């Protein structure tokens, strides 16, 4: 783990509240799918964000940052990026990386911009033919918040072992898909979670509730991964 400088190659808004940042390190950075970096704002101020690109793509670092005037912690990072030039990162960090030495059926579950964590893992898994089924559950408040749904649905048509399940908390009247809380959708779909490995990213409260509920439904806690579990 070390500090490294990156050029700010691209900054685009994916929704009114989510930004995609593409950074080019001064040299390729080796990381594992599911790890995170920290944006160095000051000597004692380093802010963590999941790496969104696959581990095979070490030439760039992609971040998805949820930021608004009501979230100054993240908005200050966006403002720093808008100044252009370069930014200092440190990492990679995290112990919730993809375990793929012995493939298992896999559930990826994300709330909001926690999707970036699952997106890195999914892209890494899809870099080689899938040997086991992969289920990606993504929960957001509205359909407009689900900024990568079209890409995911296209991938699901290309990879028969991949299933994408979007879940909306506040759907429009014409929404035909799943509704409610994303972890509840997982519980409804699997009688037992014992055979699966599960990767979770989102609010700590959601991660804590999911851990308890999934364990009660048979999930072995050794097969549950997420950065939140280092803290809760």
- From the spread of the alpha carbons, the general shape counts as globular
| Weakly predicted, low-confidence segments | none
Helix content, binned percent: 10-25%
Which strand order do you get reading across the main beta sheet?
4-3-6-1-2-5
Q: Which sequence of SSEs, written as H and E, runs from N to C?
A: EEEEEHEEHEHEEHEHE
Strand content: 25-35%
Q: How would you sum up the major sheet? A: 6 strands, antiparallel
**Average pLDDT across residues?**
94
Q: Please work out how many helical segments DSSP would assign.
A: 5
Radius of gyration: 17 Å
Structural class: alpha/beta
Tell me the distance between the termini.
Answer: 24 Å
What is the count of β-strands? Answer: 12
Descriptive keywords:
alpha/beta; 5 helices; 12 strands; globular
Describe this structure in words.
Helix content is 23%, strand content 34%. A hairpin with a 2-residue loop joins strand 3 (36-42) and strand 4. With 232 residues, the chain is an alpha/beta fold. The radius of gyration is 17 Å and the shape is globular. The mean pLDDT is 94. The longest helix has 13 residues, at 204-216. The relative contact order is 0.15. It has helices spanning 72-82, 115-126, 149-158, 182-189, 204-216, and strands at 2-15, 18-25, 36-42, 45-50, 61-66, 86-93, 106-111, 134-140, 162-168, 178-179, 197-201, 224-225. The chain has five helices and twelve strands. The protein has a six-stranded antiparallel beta sheet with strand order 4-3-6-1-2-5. It has a six-stranded parallel beta sheet with strand order 10-9-8-7-11-12, sandwiched between helices.
